[in-house]
Amino acid sequence: MEKLYEGKAKVVYATDEPQVLRIHFKDDATAFDGAKRGSIGGKGYCNAHISAYAFRYLEKAGIPTHFLELRPPNEMLARRVRILPVEVVMRNIAAGSLSARLGIEEGTDLPFALLEHFYKNDALHDPLICEEHIRILGLATGEQIAEVNGMAREVNQHLSSFFSACGLILVDFKLEFGLDSGGRVLLADEVSPDTCRLWDKETRTKLDKDRFRRDLGKVEEAYQEVLRRVRGVHG
Ligand code: UDP
């Protein structure tokens, strides 16, 4: 079927059903705005499976998502949505760009879950933006932003529990939302070690894409370990 879009980590195809898309998860990995490129063996398989477990869990908790079904080894069927060009990052512990931007030492507990918006725009390098920027740029309505923010905070509660049951700390993560044909806001994209920082609860070992970004080694093993734990608890 027709390829609709190819991104850094996924390819999206049309299906016979106009409202259903097939999403293929790739092993390709990029970091630092595309400056670092590589491949992580088995990543597509792990991310498709981990995302499927997470989306099913969230659906059960009452969060509307684009997920329909897993198509092993590394694809899923999802509802067609128009992705809002705003990335939502939720943070429980300081790390990454927050630590770099504000000088908060990585690993510092935040006093409350921090919600940030980034403008999904490659030419502008995905800048941090505020709600008024979103409205001025017409990226979403005030109502849609409020709904997205409420859902993101709920998702943080649910995913923190989901990963905690697996002995993992959900440090931070990125979400994307889309509008279905009826204008309903759905959680879209993926939930995986590409988009979530996950630390082992006991040792605080990083089990996510930071192993690739920072050349920490055992990258494939980290993705497999997260899937092994998620499958063990939620499978
Ligand atoms: N993130 C992502 N895609 C992006 C940027 C960030 O999935 O394009 C995730 C990242 O994996 C982390 C969280 O969002 O879990 C916060 O990332 P941060 O802003 O700290 O940026 P980074 O350090 O990854 O550049």
Structure explained in plain terms:
- With 235 residues, this protein is α+β, with helices and mostly antiparallel strands.
- The protein has 6 helices and 14 strands.
- A hairpin with a 5-residue loop joins strand 12 (168-179) and strand 13.
- Helix 1 runs parallel beside helix 6 (219-234).
- The longest helix is centred in the middle third of the chain and has 23 residues, at 142-164.
- The radius of gyration is 17 Å and the shape is globular.
- It starts with a strand and ends with a helix.
- The chain binds uridine-5'-diphosphate.
- Residues 89, 95-98, 126, 172-174, 194-197, 209 line the site of uridine-5'-diphosphate.
Question: What are the main properties of this structure?
Answer:
single chain; 235 residues; alpha+beta; 6 helices; 14 strands; 33% strand; globular; binds uridine-5'-diphosphate
| Ligand set | uridine-5'-diphosphate
The SSE order reads EEEEEHEEEEHEEHHEEEHH
* DSSP strand content: 25-35%
Based on Cα principal axes, name the global outline: globular
Largest sheet: 7 strands, antiparallel
Q: Which spans of ≥5 residues are poorly predicted at pLDDT below 50?
A: none
Give Rg in angstroms. 17 Å
End-to-end separation: 30 Å
Average pLDDT score: 98
Please count the helical segments.
Answer: 6
Task: Please tally the β strands and state the result.
Answer: 14
Helix content: 25-40%
Structural class: alpha+beta
